[in-house]
Amino acid sequence: MEVFWMASTIMEQRRFTRYRLQAGFTGITATTEDGRRLDGHAHDLCEGGIQIEIDDTVRDHERLEVEIELPGATVARSPARVAWRDDETGRIGLRFESLAPSEHARICRWLGTATPVW
Questions:
Q1: Is the pTM here over 0.70, yes or no?
Q2: Alpha-carbon Rg of the chain, whole angstroms?
Q3: How far is it, in rounded angstroms, from Cα 72 to Cα 90?
């Protein structure tokens, strides 16, 4: 099992409160810089990033363009970078980069209706 962690401490990984998303029902599409489209679903979301699960592999620190289908038919878009990955489970942690103010507001509005998990 190969696991890559970018954050050096648990505190860095948990800078923002996490909100659980309904796995299998919160779709994501990630597009790589070379144009590969990766479909999957999200597990949890916070202001700073998202945990996703996909069947494909990504590289350490790879930059992706992510579309998140939030509950209520809201779609949020953001550039993101791979912060960690677990190749055995297919789970990947993405850190949002250059999140547009409108997209940040969209995510924060949704987070305001959700129940935090940690």
A1: yes
A2: 13
A3: 26
Tokens 């791979």 belong to residue: 82
Element (H, E) at 23: none
- Measured CA to CA in angstroms, residue 101 lies from 23, 30, 64, 95 at distances of 26, 20, 18, 16
**Beta-carbon count within 10 A of 8 CB:** 8
Number of other residues whose CB lies within 10 A of the CB of residue 116: 12
CATH number for the domain formed by residue range(s) 16-111: 2.40.10.220
Six-digit token string for 87: 């190749």
Give the per-residue pLDDT at 14.
57
Q: Give the integer Cα–Cα distance in Å for 42 and 37.
A: 15
54-105 residue pLDDT tens:
988 899 999 999 999 887 767 888 999 999 999 888 899 999 998 889 888 8
